[in-house]
Structure formats: C-alpha cells, structure tokens
Design goal:
Shape: elongated
Number of strands: 10
Largest sheet: 4 strands, antiparallel
Membrane topology: Peripheral membrane protein
CATH topology of the largest domain: Tetracycline Repressor, domain 2
Oligomer: single chain
Number of domains: 4
Family: Belongs to the ZW10 family.
Structural class: mainly alpha
CATH class of the largest domain: Mainly Alpha
Strand order of the largest sheet: 1-2-4-3
Strand content: 5-15%
Number of helices: 26
Organism: Sitta europaea (Eurasian nuthatch)
Helix content: 55-70%
Distance between the termini: 188 Å
InterPro entries: Zw10/DSL1_C_sf, ZW10_C, ZW10_C_2, Zw10_middle, Zw10_N
Pfam families: ZW10_C (PF20666), ZW10_C2 (PF22766), Zw10_middle (PF20665), Zw10_N (PF06248)
Length: 738
C-alpha cells in the first residue's frame, strides 16, 4: 500500500514538471515557426530593398564623381578663357611680361585638360588652335619691338665682312632710357623678359650674336685699321666704324683687346645689363646668355687671328711677351665683370701663358715649311764641298767654364781635325767628306737643322724637346718627300741621281755627329746624350745608294740594248754586219763618255771610278761572252773583231774624266784595270784573236799562264775550234788545254 502511495506522490510531483516541459516545447516550436516566417520575410523583402539601396548609392557616387570632373574641366576652361582674355588685354596695353605669363598659364591649363584619360573633348583641338594663334601674335609683336630696339644698318652686299662692308655697317640701340618716364614704349627689360618667358629669347640672341660676330667683333680682330666709333644721342645709341689711313699689317693683341672691350662696354651699358628671370635657370643677365652663345667662336678667332701672330719667332723676344699675357688677363677680367664670361673661363689666358709651347709650335711650323720648300727646290743648283770646308755655322760659345772636366770645344764640325776625349786626334779624314757636289738646298737644310738645335739649347726644356723632335722630323720628311717629289727626274737624269746620292751621304755624315755637338751646352735636355740622330744614318746611306744603283741599272740596260744590235759579232767579213757592230761599239762609248761628263766634278772620285768601271765592265763582259760563243771565226772575221776590240781598249779608258782639270785625269785612266774587272779577260781575248796555235798553248801554259786566269779550258777549246780548221796540229793543241 505504501509503495502505491510513493508512486502516486512521485507521479503527482512529476506531472507538473512534465506539463511545464511540454509547454516549453510548444513555446519553442512557436518561436521557431516565427523565425522561419521572419527569415522568409527578410529573404523576400528586406534583402531586395537593401540591394536596391546599394545600387542607388553607387550610382549617386558615380554621378558625384562625374559632376566633380565636369566642374573641374569647366573651371579649367574658364581659367583658360580668362587667361587668354587677360593676355589679349595686356598685349593691347603693351604689358608684354604679363601677356607672356598669362599665355604660359593658358598653356598649362590646356596641358592638364589634355592629360585627362577617357575625356577627349572636341573643343580641345579648337582651344589648341586659339592658343597657337595667340602665341604667334605675341611673338610677332615682340619681334616688332625687338627690331625697333636693335636696328642693324648693313651694306647691301650681305654676308661680306670686307673692310669696305664693315665701314658701312652701323648698329643702332633704341634702348636709351627716355627723359620722361610716362612714355608708352615698353622698356627693353619687358620685351626681353617676355621673350624669355616664351622661350624665344635664345634664338633672337643667337641671331644677334651671329651678326655681332660677323660685322663687328671678327672684323675688329682681323682688320687692324678698323676703329669702333660709339655715339650717344637723346634717344638712341649708335655704333659706327672708321678705317684709319696709316695702319700696321698686324694689330697687337693689346689694341685688339681694347677695341673688343669698348664694344662690350657700350653693349653692356645699353643692352646687356638687363637681369632676367629665365625659366628653369633663375636670375641671369642678358650678358651671360650672349656670352654663352658667342664666346667660343670669339675666343677661337682671337687666338687664331691675333694671339698666334703675336707669338715670337725667336727666343730673344720671348721676354717681351709678358705684356701680352698681362693684357690678356686684364681683358678676361673686364669681360667677367660685365658678366659676359663665367668666372672659370680662361681659354685666352691659358693660350697666352702657354707661350713656350706655342713659340715652339710656331718655330717648328716655320722650320718645317722652310725645310719643305728647300726639299722641293731644284736639285741641280749645287755647291762644291771639300774635306776642309766647314759648314757655314755659328761658332758655339765655350761650354760653361765652371766644369771640372775641361771639355773639348765642339766647334761645329770643321770637317778637318776632330778632337776626341783627352785631346788625341783622329786623322783629318776620319770624319772628312770626299770632295763632291751637293745641292745648295741640302746644305741650307743642314744649316737649318744646326740653327734650330742651337735655338733649342737656349730654350726651356719643353720647348727644347719640341725643337729637337722638329729637327728629327725635318730629316724624316726629307726621307719621304724627296724621292717621291723628284721621282721622275731622279730616274731620267743620271746627274741628278748622282747629286741626290751625294746629298744623302752628306746628310748621313752630319747626322753622325749632330746630336753630339750640343752635349756640352747648358744643362738642357740635349746634354744627357739621349739626343742623337745616329739611328737615321743607315737609312740615309741606303736612300742615296738605292737611287744611284737604280740609275746604274738603267745605264747598264742601255749598254746591253745597244750591244744587242751588233748581230752577235758573227760573220764580220760581211760588210753590213761589221758596220752594225762598229756602230754599236761607238754608241756604247758615246754613252759612257756622256755619263763621264755629267758625273764629272759631281761624284766623289772613288764613287765615280767604281761606277764608270762597272759600266765599262758590263760592255766588255758582254762583248767577250758574244765572241766566245761564236762557232766559226774566219781569218778576216778575227782581224775585224780584233780592230773592234782595240777601239774599246783605246777609247774605253778615256771616258774616265772624274775631274775638271784634264791633266789630273791621266792617273785615273791608267788605273782602269783596277776598276774594270773583265779588263784582262778582254785583253787575253784580243791576244787569242791574233795568235797562232802555239802562242795560245804557251799563253795557257798547262793551266798556269795568263790565259788560264781569264778563261776556262772549255772556253779556250771552243775558241780554238772556231778560229782554226780541223787539223792534226789543232787536235794536238786542244789536247794540251785541260
């Protein structure tokens, strides 16, 4: 029973809590369905409204952006329009700077309009055109003003800077400040500033600078008689010119600087002293801008047409050049004060101060020009030199007496005795030159080299080195110029080839000692022994030899050519053949005689004898070869050949006439066998032509006789077979020749 009551009690307690739990479930379910309704509502209505609102907002934002853009574009357009109007009205009132500034403002408005992406207005093109028209308009007005301010009165023959033209030129500057300040004419500064703002000043100034150089500055530099004549009137400044009657050929740099300075002073006063605001450059004066444009050309002209000419040509005048340096410095200083030159510009002064180098350059130029003229002058004007003739040169003063070493006095190559080291003497002929003729021009060339070296020893080191190099250049120039310039004559005329040979040997002879003689002069660069010309010697000897040998080859060719018409000296019993051979021999002798005369008194005797000997030898050798090759010589042939050979032996030596004095040539004619290698061969051939068999065998003497010295056994046998008929006696004789 109690159990039942317990259960009931628990049940009655449980029931209400279950009831409330069920109520709760019901509530939750109700709430859930409410949420579902609300969610459906949101999804169906609010979401839609929200999307619409966002879209509306975005549209409004874009609308606002568009309006802002249009507004700013309209503002720019309005700004453009206003600035153009202001520009026009300023232009009417001749307020050029304002007009130019407004125009530049309008230009930047237009630029910013054009730079907008996706916004190409058709109107922009029209605005651009309007801007261009207005720009051209203002530039035209400024051009008119510029032409009123600066008036050039030039002669009709434009482009000519002759003295006559320049004297007629005038420059008028209407930039004199007027007396009453209220005039409507804009001051010069306004016109220039407006041009600067528009970027047009540079080209106007360039044209002005060009005329200034052509009609004023350059003529003042190059025409010593021109003088500037400035004149100020009430409203205009005029620059005219006049030519002085008595003027020097060259104005000194001091005078030229004064004239140029005067021109810049007046220009500075009436025109160039205008300060400008230069876009991108800040404040500058017109003088600075003009200076930048013309200084390079002006300084070039001053250097080349004025300073160069004032450089001294010999070292003694170098002292006086200080005055030029001072006035150059003063000139540059004045132009810097007027702001025509920048502070760091020193082109002129640098040039003037570098006078040593310029002196050397000018000296070298003069020397090279003189040398070249000498090299291209006639070779055949000659002078005779002998072993004891010394070059016409200045005596060198004694070397410094303070030297511990008593140095031998280097008198300039007296071509006799030369002192060596401790006073021991060389033979007078060691450095002597054989008597011969050389071109006067070459003697002068060597003198020029000595004088230039002499000047070098008195100069500064830099200058000394330049002059020394210049002397080397003279000789190198000779090496290149002479053989080319005189090529034809050296090939055609044997006398010139001989003189050229002597010239080269004469130069080589002097080059041996040329540097050495200046070793004892001062402490200069030449005294260390490095200044030498010895390395040039072999080249000059070769040059002389090659030219002369070429001439020898020509002469040899002519001799062989003439002998080739002698019909091989065969069948001399035929009258026609004999005449041809006789004529050939006479022609060869005539050629040699003529050569002997053109080389007479020209070549040194030993060279003369060797040369003539070699040519005579060519003729004799050729005759021997031809006769030795004959297969048949009749008795009559032999007689006639003998008489032809006798002509050669009798008249050949007479072509040796090295000296003018006839009686002195005998000695050389007797020495012909020394110079003519085949002389004895030729004489032996003549003996054979006249001899009988026994005499020939005797001359051979078992290969020990004189005949054996000149001919081989085969040649002698061949001659015997040609001269004698085939007999037992001939066979016996032939057997002995072996």
């Amino acid at each position: 029973g109690e159990v039942c009551t317990m259960i009931n009690k628990k049940y009655s307690e449980f029931l209400p809590s279950m009831q409330s739990a069920e109520d709760l479930v019901a509530q939750v379910e109700g709430l859930a369905s409410n949420i579902d309704l609300l969610k459906a509502g949101i999804e169906n209505e609010v979401q839609r409204d929200l999307t619409v609102a966002v879209a509306e907002f975005t549209e409004l934002k874009q609308q606002l952006e568009r309006d802002t853009l249009v507004l700013s574009v309209l503002k720019k357009l309005q700004e453009f329009d206003t600035t153009l109007k202001e520009c026009s009205s300023a232009l009417l009132e001749k307020q050029y700077v304002t007009a130019a500034q407004q125009l530049q403002k309008a230009r930047s408005s237009l630029r910013s309009l054009e730079s907008r992406r996706g916004f190409e207005l058709k109107i922009l093109k029209a605005l651009g055109t309007e801007l261009t028209v207005q720009t051209q308009n203002i530039i035209y007005h400024l051009g008119e003003e510029w032409q009123k301010l600066i008036v050039w009165k030039l002669p009709p023959s434009k482009g000519s800077s002759s003295l006559e033209a320049v004297v007629l030129s005038e420059l008028h500057l209407h930039t004199v400040p007027p007396q009453d300040e209220d005039t409507a004419v804009p001051p010069v500064a306004a016109v220039l500033q407006a041009l600067a703002v528009l970027g047009e000043l540079h080209s106007k100034l360039r044209d002005f600078g060009h005329l200034l150089l052509q009609y004023i500055l350059k003529p003042l530099i190059s025409q010593p008689s021109l003088e500037p004549v400035p004149e100020e009137q009430a409203d205009v400044f005029i620059l005219r010119f006049r030519a002085q009657e008595l003027a020097l050929d060259e104005a000194s740099p001091m005078e030229v600087f004064d004239k140029i300075k005067l021109v810049f002073e007046v220009l500075h006063k009436y025109l160039l002293n205008v300060p400008l605001e230069q876009p991108g450059k800040g404040r500058v004066t017109l003088a600075e801008l003009l200076g930048e444009l013309i200084w390079e050309e002006l300084s070039d002209c001053l250097i080349h047409n004025c300073l160069v000419n004032s450089i001294p040509t010999n070292s003694s005048k170098l002292e006086q050049y200080k005055e030029v340096i001072e006035s150059t410095e003063e000139f540059e200083r004045a132009l810097k004060q007027m702001q025509v030159l920048k502070e760091d510009t020193t082109a002129l002064l640098k040039y003037a101060c570098n006078v040593d180098s310029h002196f050397a350059n000018r000296k070298c130029q003069d020397v090279i020009i003189r040398a070249r003229n000498l090299m291209t002058s006639e070779i055949h004007n000659t002078v005779k030199i002998t072993p004891d003739s010394s070059v016409a040169l200045p005596e060198l003063p004694d070397p410094g007496s303070g030297d511990q070493l008593k140095v031998p006095r280097p008198s300039l190559l007296h071509q006799g005795v030369v002192t060596v080291g401790s006073g021991s003497r060389l033979s007078p002929l060691t450095l002597g030159l054989p008597t011969c003729r050389i071109s006067c021009s070459v003697q002068q060339l060597v003198e020029l080299a000595y004088h230039t070296l002499l000047e070098a020893t008195a100069s500064t080191d830099l200058c000394c080195v330049q002059l020394f190099d210049c002397v080397r250049n003279i000789f190198q120039l000779f090496y290149e110029v002479v053989p080319t310039y005189h090529r034809e004559n050296l090939q055609k005329l044997p006398q010139l080839a001989a003189i050229h040979h002597n010239n080269c040997m004469y130069i080589a002879h002097h080059l041996l000692t040329l540097g050495h003689q200046f070793r004892y002069r001062g402490t200069g660069v030449l005294s260390n022994g490095a200044a030498t010309f010895v390395d040039l010697v072999p080249g000059f000897r070769r040059l002389g030899m090659e030219c002369f040998l070429a001439q020898m080859r020509v002469q040899r060719g002519e001799i062989l050519e003439r002998l080739s018409s002698a019909r091989n000296f065969s069948n001399m019993d035929d009258e026609e053949n004999y005449c041809a051979a006789n004529k050939a021999i006479k022609q060869v002798l005539h050629q040699l005689k003529r050569l002997g005369l053109v080389w007479q008194d020209v070549l040194p005797v030993n060279v003369y004898c060797k040369a003539m000997g070699a040519l005579l030898n060519t003729a004799l050798a050729e005759i021997v070869t031809r006769i030795a090759a004959l297969e048949d010589i009749s008795a009559e042939d032999a007689d006639r050949l003998y008489s032809l050979c006798r002509i050669m032996v009798e008249e050949g030596p007479q072509v040796f006439t090295p000296l003018l004095e006839e009686d002195k040539n005998k000695k050389y004619q007797e020495e012909v066998p020394v110079y003519v290698q085949k002389w004895m061969t030729f004489k032996e051939l003549m003996i054979i032509l006249q001899a009988n068999l026994q005499e020939i065998v005797d001359q051979w003497a078992d290969g020990k006789g004189p005949l054996a010295l000149e001919f081989s056994a085969a040649e002698v046998k061949s001659l015997i077979r040609a001269l004698f008929q085939n007999t037992e006696r001939r066979a016996a004789a032939l057997a002995k020749i072996k």
